[in-house]
Amino acid sequence: MCGIVGYIGGRTAYPILIKGLQRLEYRGYDSAGIALVNNTNVNTYKCRGKVKDLEKLIGTQDISGSIGIGHTRWATHGAPNDTNAHPHVSMNGKFVVVHNGIIENYTFIKNRLVEKGYTFKSQTDTEVLANFIEDIYLTSKCSAEEAVRSALLRIIGAYGLAIICTDEPDKLFGTRKGSPLVLGIGNGEHFLASDATPIVEYTDKMIYLNDEELVIATANEIRLTNIHESGDKQINVTKVDLSIDNIDKGNFPHYMLKEIHEQPLTIADTLRGRLLPDAHEIHLGGIADVMPRLMQAQRIIIIACGTSYYAGMVGEYLIEEYARVSVEVEYASEFRYRNPIITPNDVIIAISQSGETADTLAAIRMAKERGALILGVCNVVGSSIARETDAGIYTHAGPEIGVASTKAFTAQAVVMTLLALQLGRKKGVLSEERYKSFIDDLVNVPAAINRILADEDKIREIAEKYRSASNSIYLGRGLLYPVALEGALKLKEISYIHAEGYPAAEMKHGPIALIDNLMPVFVLATKDRYYEKVVNNIQEVKARQGQVIAVVTAGDTVIRKMADYVIEIPHTEDPFIPLLAVVPLQLFSYYVAVMRGCNVDQPRNLAKSVTVE
Ligand code: F6R
Known about the structure:
Blueprint: E1 3-8, H1 13-24, E2 31-38, E3 41-48, H2 51-58, E4 67-73, E5 88-89, E6 95-103, H3 106-115, H4 125-140, H5 144-154, E7 157-165, E8 172-177, E9 182-185, E10 190-193, E11 205-208, E12 213-217, E13 222-226, E14 238-239, H6 255-261, H7 263-271, E15 275-276, E16 281-282, H8 291-296, E17 299-304, H9 306-323, E18 326-331, H10 332-335, E19 346-352, H11 358-369, E20 373-378, H12 384-388, E21 391-392, H13 407-426, H14 432-442, H15 445-453, H16 456-466, E22 471-476, H17 480-495, E23 498-503, E24 520-525, H18 531-542, E25 547-553, H19 558-562, E26 565-569, H20 577-595
Helix pairs in contact: 3-4, 4-5, 7-13, 7-15, 9-13, 9-17, 15-20, 16-20, 17-20
Residues 305-308, 352-354, 357, 360, 404-405, 489, 493, 610 line the site of fructose -6-phosphate.
């Protein structure tokens, strides 16, 4: 939540900061701002709204300066308005701050500062921090670096920060705890950002800051220290393999549509080097060292939030079915606070696209303290969760910029499928013959998704028919139950239509009361072991005049006669059906949202990376 960006070097900072904020806008988009430093003169521009509103506000005003910081906000303290927008400038103008996170003890600090005569313009915790640093700086007569360090030692909470001191305008300070921060190393210039996307255009050399590290950058030098001591730390530079094409919309009108269409490629990327069809083998290099411990696990606990949680459910069903290991899937936010029983014989798998979700990170830390082996399934390379886990498997889906997760879900489900099949084979639960036939079929999944995407016009027609619905139900059984939940989440988050996902058989225990002739009911009814039972569920809906849109296996003639609409997906082996069945649901949600005039890539109230609990 919130994106921060900073620049120091020889160029005009403004275009770099604006472009950086556009790239980070998926992290929060209720207000935006920048501060530009030209010698000791600081121009701060900020407003409620998006980065394009900020650009409009700045218009022809002074944009000079080769040092600057910027922010795009997802409000935590204080309503989204012009005053609460970042950057925040301290009362005497000495410090300018942008912040991603929450300062928990800000009220206590604010009261102390008010007693000392400080006044505040905004309701934010960030302005308190700016004044707190300034107060230390002025009363202790210390350097800006010492003032920043001293303030950070006394605050409680999470932060990614970019800070400028107007008395030392040739320095850019960056620090983090709980919220991500990356420093890019250019030629005579340095960049700061919440993730690598604003920086890749200029350099591939980056430093991923660790918690409590403090970097001090001038145009030509960097010093890495931490908030506890001023001594220099060793700098580890990472070469980031991310191209601009990955973060552009290309010819698509929205990132979400681009990301839906990328899935044949991203799934192939997830499989690359892991699915070895010629050798009929699955190779998961990232967890090879911990495989013996995983094989001994009494229980696997999957922790995640939102869409990643549903991918975890797919993993639960597959691991229990094919490897016969007991699996629990937990919402990270519940797990971390409910004092769960965790033993050193447990293996925790944390699933997270961003690798920065605060609840998932906190749950990992708790489980680690209790001795469990922690594995990560993350998309963002170098993210906090990827670094804090003992081992892991990257999903390699490339940057996901649309706020609603699509390609990350299928990539996570692919990883969980590979893990289940490998574990099943190694444990001897899955016969060699079955294992090989699964591998042969998994190779065909990207092509099968291409065939579903070719039917896009039909899905758009169905969306046209139901665009004005107020409610909807998604039903599925077995592996398609998590897909029903994911389909419902997609629809509600981007089109604001109320949607419920349910296990199909559970419908008669309550939700069936909602069904009338206005209620669209998505039924996931492919040819698997539940088929006959789901056919009965469709009849129950039709008997109550519900509108049925069924996702079926190609060639199904039975359901075609009962349903109002059918969407066919190619035949595939059971474990891979979720990878195909989710795609029409993603497209349906996308088109409904577009037809309703919703902002598909940036739905209201949401942010891509949830770094607050
Ligand atoms: C839904 C969505 C969210 C995320 C959730 C977890 O489309 O994107 O529900 O799945 O916030 O985020 P990560 O996977 O980054 O931990």
